[in-house]
Design brief:
6-stranded parallel beta sheet, Rossmann fold, alpha/beta, elongated, 16% strand, 13 helices
Length: 352
């Protein structure tokens, strides 16, 4: 049997590093489901009981591994069911690729059974990249770009594969002609650090503070040692946003725990009495639980420049990877000799 486009889709996903696909079968993806059996040595198919579960599981996969989570659903209602889990991935900045079926191309525009405008449906949740394949030679670059964009932008991408196209013979090499796109798999995340001048500015603000508070979020995952060293140097208390619960252990004496409606009294005190705020990898949304504007000087570190200075008016907002940025910042910090603020924070934690 000639290799189908469905087979090539799976092979290309594997070349991009995908090892697992979460999904639920349906008529619109029959060819892909069949191909999964032929490629079970390279890709594990995790069959769920509802498409929404597949999207949430793909998001969880991305959170735990740092890889692109891939979910698979049929056309129409199957694709629609993915949306809730995909929005979870988008809003939590996780790389997820949704692959969905579609009615045969000959019937599109004919009010065919379960025909849904899937490009429009996914245009918000997968706004960085959503494409429908209409030609087998597209599949190579669609897979490569969807996977790479999901990783680079830490977001959701979506590919729509009509069921008749998935059954066609694969075209692994695009024709050498005008208009053809020739792509390759692969992506390595860059090392992003702020310029030296900004690092010095941030250090000056933090060194001048007498009562430093830190708020860490999921962007600080993987930077545990650097967060702890920064807190120790500055004599700071550390509060944690919900998605940053595992950044630092709760049993450290200066960790105040959660913040917000379900937060702790020490976190509330930390924010209300500090004179300097260092926010690391967090877009914690509830500004009323942060210092009052003007109360504290602010420094923020985030990999996504779009998320800077939207929760608190920061004096110095740094675009950079949290781990690498803190590594560059720590040598510029001066150890606080007066530990009165730290001792006050720790006493309240003990009382709490």
């Amino acid at each position: 049997m000639a290799k189908q486009t469905a087979d090539f889709i799976l092979e290309r996903l594997a070349e991009n590093g995908v090892k697992r696909i979460y999904g639920y079968p349906g008529d619109g993806i029959n060819a892909i489901i069949g191909a999964l059996e032929r490629h079970k040595d390279k890709l594990k198919f995790v069959q769920v009981r509802h498409e929404e579960q597949a999207a949430f599981m793909a998001c969880a996969h991305a959170k735990w591994t740092g890889e692109v989570g891939v979910c698979l659903a049929t056309s129409g209602p199957g694709a629609i069911h993915l949306l809730n889990g995909l929005y979870d991935a988008k809003l939590d900045h996780q790389p997820v690729l949704a692959i969905v079926g579609q009615q045969a191309r000959i019937g599109l525009g004919g009010n065919y059974q379960q025909e849904v405008d899937l490009v429009t449906l996914f245009k918000d949740v997968a706004g960085e990249y959503v494409q429908m394949a209409i030609e087998a030679a597209q599949v190579r670059h669609l897979i490569d770009r969807a996977h790479r964009i999901a990783l680079d932008q830490r977001t959701v991408t979506a590919l729509i594969i009509p069921n008749d196209l998935a059954e066609e013979p694969a075209k692994e090499e695009p024709p050498r002609e005008h208009g053809a796109v020739v792509s390759a798999p692969g992506y390595t995340r860059p090392r992003v650090v702020p310029p030296e001048g900004q690092l010095k500015q941030a250090a000056g603000i933090l060194n001048a503070g007498r009562k430093v508070a830190m708020l860490v979020g999921q962007g600080a995952l993987g930077a545990t040692d650097e967060v702890i060293e920064t807190a120790e140097t500055l004599g700071a208390g550390v509060a944690k946003a919900l998605l940053g619960r595992t950044v630092v252990p709760d049993d450290l004496p200066f960790v105040t725990g959660s913040i917000g409606l379900l937060g702790t009294k020490p976190s509330w005190t930390l924010m209300n009495e500090c004179d300097t705020l260092l926010m690391v990898g967090s877009s914690f949304p509830y500004s009323e639980w942060l210092p009052k504007p003007g109360q504290a000087r602010g420094v923020q570190i985030d990999l996504d420049g779009r998320m800077l200075s939207i929760r608190y008016p920061m004096e110095c907002a740094l675009v950079g990877d949290t781990k690498e940025t803190l590594k560059q910042l720590i040598p510029l910090l001066e150890r606080k000799q007066d530990r009165g603020w730290r001792e006050e924070v720790e006493r309240e934690i003990q009382q709490w």
